[in-house]
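Standup notes
- DV: blocked on the single-chain target, sequence here:
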Amino acid sequence: MTAVAHAPVVTPTWTSEQAVSVARTLAAHFAETASQRDAERILPGPELDRLAESGLLAITVPQEHGGPDLPAVTLAEVFRVLATGDPSIAQVPQSHFVYVNAMRDQGTPEQQEFFFGEVLAGKRFGNAQSEIGTKHVRDIRTTLRPSMVEVRAERASRPRSWLLNGTKGYATGALFADWIPVLAHLDVDGPLHVAWIERTAPGVRVIDDWDGMGQRTTASGTVELVDVHVADDRITPYHQTFDRPQTYGSFAQLLHSAIDVGIARAAIEEAAEFVRTRSRPFPDAGVDRAGDDPLVVHALGQMEVAVRGAEALLREAGRAVDAATADLTAQSAGTASLAVAASRASSTAVSVEVASRLFEVSGTRSALGALNLDRHWRNARTHTLHDPAAWKVQHLGRWVVDRTLPPNHGQL
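- DV (later): unblocked, structure below
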């Protein structure tokens, strides 16, 4: 369903500059029809095919497996740029890169050889992690149980095949994926693992029931799993990720921040374009065009300061994640988490504020429904709900007060 026509052209010698350049070209193309896709909820299948064919989805594959292994700071910039074109398209591969990272961290050599080869061939990873109706975001009910054949046999302590059952929500990327990594308990109340299942496997049903007011074309719907057979060599541990210092969480959160920063940049650019070409000046300003109204200019200047600050914090956070990955200790991992927390707190506030002030500087005409300028605010408000920004600030505050490092989990 989602396979690309040919393998992407990414090579181990790809540079960060090349990756960002490709992202800019794609973002410009995506921007041309982003408003229409949002207004009519047209899912971006052809656009995601083009993204896969570009090679960008393979830029973090390790060099020993044939990829360029580009750093997190580059990937964050790629996501930011893509989000300026269409943040829904940028959000879809977020889980793809998180699970490429998970495979690097927890996969066996044989698993890494296979799955990194899949990525280099243009295949995409989705996501079936969160569940709806549980106590909290880290409360998981989905379970892997030994298959009946294994139960009846005089088997060793570890079965060779499992049955996967559960229901997942907010499964961004699953509808467009070739492989869906599923977070599940190994046996009842056992440790969390990731089951790597094919999108087309029997028992897998991906439902396009996402109805968000923003990020409307991410297809972040439901995944139903009924007796899905999973071979033991398609399962990787998840719980061990947090038994030691890690950048798994900060890496994932960095990409979310990049999407918000991209939304903010797109909103201010569209506001400026509207002021230049469509707005009328307020009579009290005594000017001939809205772009010369000192209050409008001042407001746009304030917005630019805020967006540049968010962009700077994003770069700083990316560098901190890379530094911690290169020299992983509790201190370096905590420092990376704090840097990303600062970026996410900033990007949350800035994206929502700038997308709202767009109307303040653009005037009454900008509120016309046909223009669909409210999509920037809807996208920002929806995506920034992914994790509470207030908890980012709380952990930063505790560090300021007594140098307490943040907790070691996937939301920081």
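- Follow-up: The chain is about 50% helix and 10% strand.
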